[in-house]
Amino acid sequence: MSVIGSLIFCTDCGNLLRESTGDANATLLCTVCGARNKDIVPDTIISESKPSAFPSALRAKRSAVQTLSAEDRKTEAVTERLCERCGRNEMFFTTVQLRSADEGSTVFYRCVCGYKETSNN
């Protein structure tokens, strides 16, 4: 009998045998050739994969539309940009991909005085 991971094969014909009983004294009978194979406790292999390894139409539809909470929108950074209303030299900004992926993103600027403007990259 030959063991590959947790699979047990008949040494005479190569047929996949039923799972191990865990008893080293037991024998496993091959249903194809009738050979008796000594039961060997196989090594258990545990593998993990990311959900992206197995594409799913349902998962793709779910991730196509995302709802942002107020906490998610608080990801602003500060840049040197002149506010047209108060003249302050720093404005907060955030970028969002509103158009197709091959086009630039939209930059939203906000000043502490309340002035807002947008720019398309």
Automatic annotation (TrEMBL):
Zn(2+) 2 binds at residues 83, 86, 111, 113. It comes from the Eukaryota. GO terms for molecular function: DNA-directed RNA polymerase activity; nucleic acid binding; zinc ion binding. Keywords: DNA-directed RNA polymerase, Metal-binding, Nucleus, Transcription, Zinc, Zinc-finger. It holds the Pfam family Zn_ribbon_TFIIS. One of its GO terms (cellular component) is RNA polymerase I complex. CDD domains: Zn-ribbon_RPA12. Its main location: nucleus. SMART domains: ZnF_C2C2. GO terms for biological process: termination of RNA polymerase I transcription. It is found in: Nucleus, Nucleolus. Residues 79-118 form the TFIIS-type domain. A zinc finger (C4-type) spans 10-33. Zn(2+) 1 binds at residues 10, 13, 30, 33. DNA-dependent RNA polymerase catalyzes the transcription of DNA into RNA using the four ribonucleoside triphosphates as substrates. Belongs to the archaeal rpoM/eukaryotic RPA12/RPB9/RPC11 RNA polymerase family. This is DNA-directed RNA polymerase subunit.
